[in-house]
Amino acid sequence: MGHVTRELVAECKAKLLQTKAEILNRVREARTHLDSDDKGGDEADQTVRVLAEAEFLNMHDRLRNQLLEIESALGRIENGSFGLCEETEEKIEPERLRAIPWTRLSIEGAEIRESVNKRYARGG
């Protein structure tokens, strides 16, 4: 794993596993809260419930995507590609990995990808 120090990989792996556990707990708690809500009530109560369900689904989708990124990062740790930018194939900055251990891009790689996305968004 010559790209990133073992200490940094261990630190990031611990953070990834902790974040994964926190996300799973948040989803479980939100689902329990949603399931425990009374399903009766007048139209206003039912509207509030529908809005709460929509909010739960949006949150669930965001957290699911984050879980996929975390699992992908754990996979990169296992296969030895953790810490390499997908865009530039250069090392990702250690500070960036500490802040966002599931990141796939260095700062430069993120800027490149953003400029490419903007160009395609404008149609040109």
Summary keywords:
124 residues; mainly alpha; Four Helix Bundle (Hemerythrin (Met), subunit A); 4 helices; 72% helix; flat
Secondary-structure blueprint of this entry?
Elements lengths: L5 H31 L6 H37 L14 H6 L7 H15 L3
Helix pairs in contact: 1-2
Written description of the protein model:
- By secondary structure, the chain is mostly helical.
- It has one domain: Four Helix Bundle (Hemerythrin (Met), subunit A) (Up-down Bundle), CATH 1.20.120.910.
- Helices cover 72% and strands 0% of the residues.
- The protein is built from four helices and no strands.
- The termini are far apart.
- The mean pLDDT is 89.
**Which structural class fits the helix and strand makeup?**
mainly alpha
Outline, from the CA principal axes? flat
Return the CATH architecture.
Up-down Bundle
What is the fold-level CATH name, i.e. the topology? Four Helix Bundle (Hemerythrin (Met), subunit A)
In which range does the helix fraction lie? over 70%
- Tell me the number of helical segments per DSSP (H or I, 4 or more residues long): 4
Q: Give a count of the beta strands, DSSP E runs of length 2 or more.
A: 0
The number of domains: 1
Strand content: under 5%
What is the H-and-E element order?
A: HHHH
Main β-sheet description:
none
Poorly predicted regions? none
